[in-house]
Batch of 4 targets.
Target 1
Amino acid sequence: MLRSCYFLHFFSTYFPVPALHRRTEHRNAGRRAGAHLEAKYARAVPSAPIATRRASISLIADRAHYEQVTLAIARAQTSVWIASANVKQLLIEAPIGTRDRARGRYVPILDTLQSLADRGVQVRLLHATPPSRPFREELAARAKRLIPPAFEMRACPRVHLKMIAIDGALLYLGSANFTGAGLGAKGDGRRNFEMGVLTDDEWMLDQVQARFDRIWRGVECAACRLRDKCPAPLDGLVRLRATSVRSPSSRASRRT
C-alpha cells in the first residue's frame, strides 16, 4: 500500500494532469452544482410562465464612452437626463463642417447642451459636488440661454449614480462621471478606465428614470438623514418653484 501511494504521489508530481482535463472537471463540477440548485429551487418555486422581452445591450469601455454616449447626446430630440457625482469641463470635437472642426479644435459640451436647449430639448443635470471652475465659467457665459425649463441643474450630495438617458429611448449606466476624463475626447493615455452598458431596454429605462425623477423632485429628501448637512434640499426648491409658478394666476384671480 505504501509503495502504491508513493507511486501515485510521484505520478501526480512529475506528470501533472493536463490543463484541459482540469478545466473539463471544473466545468463538470459547475454543471453538477447548477443542476443541484435548479432541482432544489424547482421544488420550492411553483412553475410559472417567464416574461421575456427583446432589447439591445452593449458593454462599452474607455474611448467607446465618447463615441457611443457623448456624441449621442447631440442627436437628442426631446430630452437628456444626466446624473453624475462630479461635473467638470468636458471638451468634444467641434461639429463637422465648422471652422473650428477644420482647425482641429475642441469645444465645451455646453455648446451642445445650449444647442439642444435652443431646440426645445429638455436637459437636466443632477450632480453631487459643485462643478469645476472652468465648467462654471462656461456656464456663466451662457447664462442668458441656458435657463429653465429647457436647461436645469440640481444638486444632491448623495448622488453617486452615473447615468444618461436620451429621449427616454437610450440609456447609459456605468462608471463614467460627466467629466472630460470620463466622457470627453481625451487621448487613450490620459482618459479614465471606464466601463458601462448602453441599452434601449424599456424596463431598465423606466426604473432608472423613475429613480432619477424621485431625486430630482426631492421625494427622497424627507427621509434623508443628511438633510441638515444639505445646503439646499431639493424638496424646498421644488415647492419654491411651484409657488412662483402659481403666484401670477393667484394674483390675477384676486384682481378679478
Target 2
Amino acid sequence: MCATLSQDADAFAHVAPTVGMAGASPTDIEECTLETARRQLGSYAVPVDRTDRIPLSVAVGRVLATDATANDRLPGADVGVDETVFERGHQLRPADVGLLKAAGVNELLVRQRPQVGIVPTGDGVVEYDAGAGDRIETAGFTLAQYADRWGGKVTYRSPVADDAPALRMAVQRDLTRDIVVLTGTEPGDTLREVVRELGDIAADRVAISPGRETGLAVVQNRPVLLLPESPVAARVGAVQLLRPLLKGFGDAPLPAHPSRAATLDGPLDTDDAVRSFVPVALDGQSATPLSGTDLATATRADGWVTVPADEPDPAVGDTVSVEDWDYLP
C-alpha cells in the first residue's frame, strides 16, 4: 500500500520536526506540523475498491464507482441515451439524483464508504449511567456522528478501561477497518505503549492547539489516529486530520469549510509555536472567543478562527475569517 512502518516513522523524523522528548525512542520523539501529519496519514489513504449497487433514493453523498449514464434522453438537456450524466468519482448531491431520475436511472454503482472504528478509552469513562467518579463518554460519540456525515461507515465501540490487555484487544479488533481512531489518550500513557508494541507511533504530538497531545500511528498498514479526551481538542484533531483522511479513502472531494468575516470583540492569547484554532460565538458581525476545552465550549462554538504558527494574534477590532466546521458535506 505504501512505505513500511519503519520508513514511515523515518519520514516523520526528517520532515518538519519541532520538538523532542528526552528518553523516547527515535520513532516517537518528534512533534510534527499539521501539514506533515496530513501528508503522512494521506499516504495510507488508498481509495477503497469495494463497491455497492444501491437504489437512487439513498445515493446522496455517495461517490460514483463508474460513470452514470442515461437510460432515457433528458428533456431539454443535451444528453442522449447511454451518454454520461456524471463521471466516475463524482459525489452525488440532492439535485443530481433528481437529474438521474429524469434520465431513467434507478440504481447506481458507488464506492463503499471507508470503514472507521472509533474506540473511546480511559478509566472511569462510561457510555451511560455514570456513578460516583465516572464520566460520560462524549468525545468519541460526537466524532462518530461527524465521521458518518463525512462519508465514513462508523463502528463506535464501548469505552475501554486503561488496561493493557483490554486495550490491545480493542485495537486489534478494529484493524479490519480502514482507519482506527482512539480517544482519551496522551503521550506516555498505557494506550500509546500498547500501540507502540503493535506497530509504530510515528508522532507523539501534532503542533496544533488545542489538541497538541494528538498522536499518529500505523499498525498493520492501518492509520491510527490518537486523540485526547477533551471534546474541543478531539474535534480539532478530527476536523483537521480524520476528515481529509476519510475523503481520501472514499475518493471524495474535500471542500473548504464555508467561512464568513466577523469583527473580533475579545482578545486572543495563542501559542505562536503551533497552529491554533479558536472557537468563537457569533453575534451579528461580532466574534467572541470562547475559553475552555469541555463539551459546552465545543457545543457553543458557531465557528473557528485559525491563527497560523509564528504569526501574531489578531487584535480586538480586527476582521477575522470564521470557519463553520458544522457544515458537513
Target 3
Amino acid sequence: MLNPDQARALAEEYFNGARDFDEATEVGLWGFEDGYVGWACEPEPHDPSVLPEVVGGGCVIIDKATGELEIRPLLAPDIVAEQWPGRRPR
C-alpha cells in the first residue's frame, strides 16, 4: 500500500520529470479510499487579465495498491476520484 509521501513522490516525478529543483512545479495531492489524485499547481498570474501560458491540463490517479498511474482530465479531485472505475486486474 502506498502512503501519501510515496504518492507525492510519484506525482512529482511524473509532472516535473528531469526539471531542476528550482524549476519544479508544485504538485497537489488529494487522497481517497483507493488512491490519490495528483495535479500540477500552476502559479496564479500577477495580472488576472493576462491569459495563462498553459490552457487545460490533466491530472493523474495513483492506485494505492499498485502505484500505477492513470492520466485523467483535470477536474476537481473528488470528481476525478468518483469517476475512476478502480483498479483493473491484469
Target 4
Amino acid sequence: MNIEWVKTKDIIPNTENPRIIKDDKFKKLVQSIKDFPEMLEIRPIVVNNEMMILGGNMRLKAIQEIGLKEVPIIKAENLTEQQQREFLIKDNVGFGEWDWDALANDWNPEELNEWGLDVPLFLDEPTGDDLVDDEKNKPATMKITFESPEQLQKAEIDIQELLDRKFKGAYFSVSAGEL
C-alpha cells in the first residue's frame, strides 16, 4: 500500500463511525497535529475505494479545523463491506494497557498530558489533622471497589469520560488495597 496525498475536501467522513471525541480531547488532538505534523504521514488516514474514512475520522476533523488542504492517505483496497466495518472498530480498539508505574517513573506527566494521555491525579491522602476542622467543608467522596486491578484499569477511562462529561471539576484518585 502506498501513501498518497489528497485534498481534504475529497475525503468522506464515515457516518457509521461509532467513536466520538470530546471538546478537551479534540483540542489536544488539534494541538498534537500542529506540534507534530510529521505524525500524519507516519500514520495516514485509511480510506476505502470511494474515499470514505475507515480509520482517522477524528484526525480529519482536526486537520480541517487547522485548515490543512491536503492530507496523506492509504487506500485499503479490496476489502469487503464486512471487513470495512470490522476495520472501523478494530482500528479504534485499545488492546494494550498503560504501565502506570513506568509512565510515572520514566515520563514527564505534563508532556504526557499535552500529548493527549489522561494522566490520573494521584493526590496525597489527608491526614487526621486535615479532617479535624469543620467536617462539613470536606469534599464529597465515593469509594468504588473493583474485583481486580485489571477491572479497575478498564474502568478508569470510562470513569474519567463520565466525570469530564457530566461533573466538571470532579476527579478521582486510585489506590490499591485497603488504606
